[in-house]
Specification:
This protein is mainly alpha-helical and about 210 residues long. The protein contains 13 helices and no strands.
Length: about 210
């Protein structure tokens, strides 16, 4: 695999410098945000559980649910598969997300193999699991696998951050933002970090865990 992997802060700084030198807006963004965060996470089943939990809830709610799952030892395939509905509901999971986590537990994904798989294969493997959409798969590739040139244009905070940064009249939809993000390749994951930080500055709230 030849894809660039972000492993430490120097890689993020390199990408940010490239964006500032090669785009019209990221120099101004970095003046506002300062250095961008690494935001690397462990990979594997537990991290993907966290991504599912984060779907359509606030960052604070997602953290709270993740904390309850961790305390109950429910971040492993075998414990999710064995847990009853009452236990999962007590952790804050909706019935829909219970189904998603059980589908993930039964999927048999080889998480070690994903580390060296092309991003397109990572996304297709993950989205084959019920409850995992493209957003979740791209977030996993970005943070858990450290892919430098992956973006998540379905993310509302990225859409809103791009609207403010680029001076757009309305928030770009997923397809439009995916096209816009092409100008930030090969550092689209760093551009995403910048837009999340910019969103936090503009809106005063976090856009991603």
């Amino acid at each position: 695999m030849t894809e660039r992997i972000i492993t430490h802060e120097d890689h993020v700084a390199e990408g940010a410098a490239w964006l500032a030198a090669n785009t019209d807006h990221f120099g101004r963004l970095l003046e506002i945000t300062g250095p961008l965060p690494l935001r690397r996470t462990p990979d594997g089943f537990a991290q993907l559980c966290s991504a599912i939990v984060s779907q359509q809830v606030s960052t604070a709610s997602a953290r709270a649910i993740r904390g309850r799952l961790e305390a109950a030892d429910l971040l492993r395939p075998e414990t999710i598969a064995a847990a009853d509905e009452e236990t999962l509901r007590g952790c804050g999971l909706s019935r829909q997300k219970m189904r998603y986590l059980r589908a993930l537990a039964a999927s048999g994904i080889d998480f070690d193999a994903l580390r060296t798989a092309p991003t397109e294969e990572v996304v297709s493997t993950l989205t084959a699991v019920t409850g995992i959409g493209v957003w979740t798969a791209e977030i996993y590739a970005m943070f858990a696998l450290g892919r430098a040139d992956v973006f998540a244009p379905g993310d509302l905070a990225l859409q809103e951050g791009a609207r403010h940064l680029l001076g757009l009249n309305e928030r770009p939809r997923e397809r439009a933002l995916r096209e816009i993000a092409q100008q930030w390749s090969p550092w689209r994951a760093v551009a995403a970090r910048g837009l999340w930080e910019y969103y936090h500055h503009v809106k005063g709230r976090e856009g991603i865990l």
